[in-house]
Specification:
CATH class of the largest domain: Mainly Beta
Largest sheet: 7 strands, antiparallel
CATH topology of the largest domain: Elongation Factor Tu (Ef-tu), domain 3
Number of helices: 3
CATH architecture of the largest domain: Beta Barrel
Radius of gyration: 20 Å
Strand content: 35-45%
Order of helices and strands: EEEEEEHEHEEEEEEH
Strand order of the largest sheet: 4-3-7-1-2-6-5
Number of strands: 13
Helix content: under 10%
Shape: elongated
């Protein structure tokens, strides 16, 4: 998975500008691309509302962020004015995914059908509203109809079928996923 988040039709969020660094217009940059430095190779990136295009160059790295410059951003004041800007690229400009790889933006919005081991449907159904990754692998956040949201590990065992063309995925109702597994010791 290479990029996350969407805004508007056909755009994908690929990064976010952080604090200014130094006096010459450099800033910290969180990249959401699989290869963080690849963000500079997408050409002009647009801001959230599309009011500005930025051409980035990567000039260094710091802990968990890149250090970048943008054409026309020549001093600390201009860099600080960009703080918090999310940067977008047209979905069509992103490379095709390998088999069994997906952009987070393509997963968000998919309908989710929960099924038991025997293939029967388990109510309620839901919709993917976010993809989280805090280092242990991607987790789908699925808001379910008239039920608590479900956090589903994005693995083949938990999500055995994805049909982007149909706009849906299947979630295996694994033990503990939708309801807590009873603890043998707690019952004694």
């Amino acid at each position: 998975m290479a990029a996350s988040g969407t805004f508007g039709e056909g755009r994908v969020c690929v990064g976010e500008i952080g604090a200014a660094r130094g006096l010459r217009g450099e800033f910290r940059l969180r990249s959401f691309t699989a290869d963080p430095r690849a963000i500079a190779g997408y050409g002009a990136l647009t801001t959230e509302r599309g009011e500005r295009s930025l051409h980035l160059s990567i000039v260094g790295e710091a802990k968990d962020v890149l250090i970048a410059r943008a054409a026309g951003v020549d001093d600390r004041t201009a860099a600080e004015a960009l703080r918090g800007c999310r940067l977008y690229v047209a979905r069509a400009d992103l490379p095709a995914c390998e088999e069994d790889e997906y952009y987070h933006a393509d997963l968000i919005g998919l309908a989710a059908a929960f099924v038991a081991e025997d293939g029967t449907s388990v109510a309620p159904t839901g919709r993917v509203v976010a993809v989280h990754d805090h280092g242990g692998g991607p987790i789908l956040e699925i808001v379910r109809d008239n039920a608590a949201a479900a956090l589903v590990p994005f693995t083949r065992a938990a999500v055995p079928e994805i049909d982007l063309a149909a706009g849906r995925l299947t979630v295996a109702a694994l033990p503990g996923l939708l309801a807590p597994v009873e603890d043998e010791d707690a019952r004694r």
